[in-house]
Amino acid sequence: MNVISRFVFALLVAAPVQSLAQDATIAAGKQEYMMGCAGCHGESGKGDGPLADMLEIHTPDLTRITERTGGGDFPFYNTLKLIDGRDVRAHGGSMPVWGDRFQISATSQRGETADMVARGRILSLVAYLGSIQQ
Questions:
Q1: pLDDT tens digit sequence for 73-95
Q2: Torsion sign across C-alpha atoms 124, 33, 103, 97
Q3: Tally of structural domains, the chain
Q4: Is 93 exposed, middle or buried (0-12, 13-18, 19+ CB in 10 A)?
Q5: I want to staple 86 with a disulfide (CB 3.0 to 4.6 A). Which of 33, 43, 61, 99 is the partner?
Q6: CA distance linking residue 63 with residue 60, whole number of Å
């Protein structure tokens, strides 16, 4: 097998693996979303959760994050920082600082630190939000 054939073969093998990993990340993010976000933002992400009317702020439609930020690419990093909340306090007092909550509740049997677990949960949540953009 020549170099080009090996490269093409490697791409063909890697693409399904990457897709499966991305699908698993989004599925984990959806689970995080349903447990922690759907109460306020709604199961569909449109800001119509059962707790939304009890909040002092308007609960945003999370399916339009990209649109609200000018279109183009989903603002992955900014969304991650806002949800984490440990470095950037966002959404006023109603939005929990999920980085702290995830870190406090983190358990690991493989040696990850609580911060690693928290960041992984937030990453999967942000990947899910990116997948529901309209």
A1: 999 999 999 899 888 765 556 67
A2: positive
A3: 1
A4: exposed
A5: 99
A6: 9
